[in-house]
Design a protein that fits this description.
Radius of gyration: 24 Å
Order of helices and strands: HEHEEHEHEHEHHHEEEEEEHHHEEEEEEE
Structural class: alpha+beta
Number of domains: 2
Distance between the termini: 39 Å
Shape: elongated
Number of strands: 19
Strand order of the largest sheet: 4-3-2-1-5-6
Largest sheet: 6 strands, mixed
CATH topology of the largest domain: Creatine Amidinohydrolase
Length: 366
């Protein structure tokens, strides 16, 4: 924790900010290991102060004693926040601008007299980009649970089963058999034309023979997330319909491979998506129309976190121990090429300290 706090204080000093009030619960957990539905963490030049309510006081106090930081239980005193500012001689406070609501900010201003509030963005999220060895080990296990749970789903493919039923099999397997604490997001199971919607909501649509299937799934394990997408063909692997699907599948698979090859330390992050889009163009596919999202994203405590693996991220480079997805996709919903489905292939990877290249955390067959 102290190394993380030191980095935060350096950022605050660079911005001429005396203290930082952290409201994002995942950021608080990342720094302290404290999990609650309500908490604030105040970092000053000399103090680290955890603030929560009476529901969590016993556990919070025990944790703070172990970490040698202060714990303050919030109360109804209208001067509560003002008293803290006076006690620790705080004149300005950085707030997480993307986390605090307008009403919350206005309330805080009223309760903290003569305090200058300064918007901050991604101070802690930028520290979270580079994972520790322990974090990568957890993420590897998380990905393994996702792989094993998806295999249970594949084993249950049959005519008449619904998207929702397969989504439930994934969640049930992840939790009951393989030890996940939950899901990273609602599992997407999409049959036929539903696969052309990147964020389809699993429905009661029944599986028919000779149908494409897209499954986007992820689990939570020890508070970390996994993310995995695979596409399958259910039925006879013959005929024009299958051949069209297979051709697009191979194009997306090749685009992913080319994008992953750019995931090397000191290479611009934008090059991954640039490579995939250039390949789509070489195959006479209008990638601007049919590939509507970014190549990938960071994964960790949140399912979507920094860095953005996108053509728009032109300045940031890959660094060791980043954990990212590689997930190009093509989605045809207008029947423009006698096809009406989507293909997305997604893997979870990390940038290796040893090789400087991307290595797979997910291992489900493609």
């Amino acid at each position: 924790m102290q190394n993380k706090i030191t980095k935060i204080r350096e950022e605050l000093q660079n911005g001429k900010i005396e203290s930082l009030l952290i409201s994002n619960l995942n950021n608080i957990w990342y720094l302290t290991g404290f999990s609650a539905s309500f908490a604030k963490l105040l970092i000053t030049k000399n103090e680290i102060i955890l603030i929560s309510d009476s529901r969590y006081s016993v556990n919070a106090q025990k944790l703070c004693n172990n970490l040698e930081i202060k714990y303050i239980e919030i109360n109804s005193d209208k001067n509560f926040w003002n008293n803290i500012c006076e006690k620790y001689e705080i004149k300005n406070i950085g707030i997480e601008a993307d986390e605090v609501t307008v009403s919350g900010f206005n309330t805080l201003k009223k309760k903290c007299k003569n305090i200058n509030f300064i918007e901050t963005r991604n101070i802690i999220e930028k520290i979270r980009i580079k994972k520790s060895k322990d974090e990568i080990d957890i993420l590897r296990k998380c990905a393994e649970i996702g792989d094993l749970s998806l295999q249970k789903v594949v084993e249950r493919f049959k005519e008449g089963i619904t998207e929702k039923e397969l989504a439930w099999i994934f969640e049930k397997s992840a939790r009951e058999i393989f030890g996940a604490s939950g899901l990273s997001f609602d599992t997407i199971v999409a049959f036929a034309e539903n696969s052309a919607s990147p964020h389809h909501e699993s429905s009661n649509k029944k599986l028919e023979k000779n149908t494409p299937i897209l499954i986007d799934c992820g689990v939570k394990y020890k508070n970390y997330c996994s993310d995995l997408t695979r596409c399958f063909w259910f039925g006879d692997k013959t005929g024009e319909k299958y051949e069209n699907w297979k051709a697009i599948y191979e194009i997306v698979k090749n685009a992913q491979k080319l994008g992953i090859e750019q995931m090397n330390t000191d290479t611009k992050i934008s090059e991954s998506e640039n490579s995939a889009r250039a390949y789509f163009a070489s195959q006479n596919i209008n990638h601007k129309k049919y590939f509507g999202h970014s190549f990938g994203h960071g994964v960790g405590i949140d399912i979507h976190e920094l860095p953005h693996v996108s053509t728009k991220n032109e300045t940031e480079i890959y660094r060791s121990r980043m954990v990212v997805t590689a997930e190009p996709g093509l989605y045809f919903s207008d029947n423009s090429q006698k096809i009406n489905f989507g293909i997305r292939i997604e893997d979870l990877l990390f940038i290796s300290d040893k090789t400087g290249k991307a290595e797979f955390l997910s291992g489900f067959r493609k």
